[in-house]
Amino acid sequence: MNDLDARFLTRNGLAARQLAAVLLHHEPETRLPRVRDFAEQLGCGNGTVQAALQLLEQSGAISTTARGHLGTFLVRSDRTILWRLSGLGTLLAAMPLPYSRRYEGLATGLRGAFEEAGAPFAVTFMRGAGARTAALLEGKVDLVVLSRFAADQLIADHPVELVADLGPATYVGAHGMLVRRGADLRAPGLRVAIDHTSEDLRMLVERVFAGRQDIEWREASYMQLPDLFSRDEVDATVWNLDEAQDRIGLGVDVLPLGDEVTRELALRNSSAAVICRSDGTTALAAIRASLDLSLVTRLQGEVLRGERIPSY
User: Fold this and answer.
1) Which end of the chain is more exposed for a tag (fewer CB within 10 A), N or C?
2) What are the φ and ψ backbone dihedral angles of 165, each rounded to 5 degrees?
3) 8-state DSSP, 280
4) Measured between alpha carbons, how far is 187 from 115 in angstroms, rounded to an integer?
5) pLDDT of 33 strictly over 60
6) Tens digit of pLDDT for each residue in 265-289?
7) Is 253 helix (H, G, I), strand (E, B) or coil?
């Protein structure tokens, strides 16, 4: 441990760590609050705040300048150092399983955007928006990635809020109807696969087959579909074509969805959304305003086009 590290364990050093978290909210070339305002916010004396600011300058976390009656301005800040000193830890996001290049690109983009903003970022993968949201509500993760449609449903029912909507085709490219070759969609007793862990797909399947009282519903995940179709155990379903590509055998046809369903998809189902708990976390609050969401979509696009190797 060097001398500077040891000094961060003193009373002034602990104040500097608190101040590091506060300064994550301030952008360069902006005026800082007065020393007495910082002191009131941190619950310490003016001298302690002044010593804490000196420690942060010595560590390379910030540079400030006094501009007379205008006050003290933050000239530069190193968000990575501020984050490390603040002890805020790593932000953890729950995402769908990375079975498609689109999801790999999304994970790569999110990691890039958070790290660009100075925040350590990690991803855990969970199947089903409901399972991911349960982990969020239980405090096991800080963020959840899901479709905008599923996000809107969850925001209405739980204390969660929207962090970002990344726009159409960031979550899925397209959906289609998968039909076993030779199956008659009008025949009674049609066996339709449905996945209740996916709010999007459940809604789509039920909408496509709305009004049909003769359907035999078969619970299935995307991993089971190839086997179910090949063993002649299901006749049809609606699925994310990013997932279905190269996984469904030759005996399955892909049909387009109707215009009404397609419009709904373009607006809400194909857009990736990021949600957090309504009470938030100190770490997320410190970084939220600095996130460059355009970087997420740019990196995702590069992965989709094969210009970047996925990294998450």
Assistant:
1) N
2) -120, 115
3) -
4) 53
5) yes
6) 556 678 999 999 998 777 787 778 7
7) strand
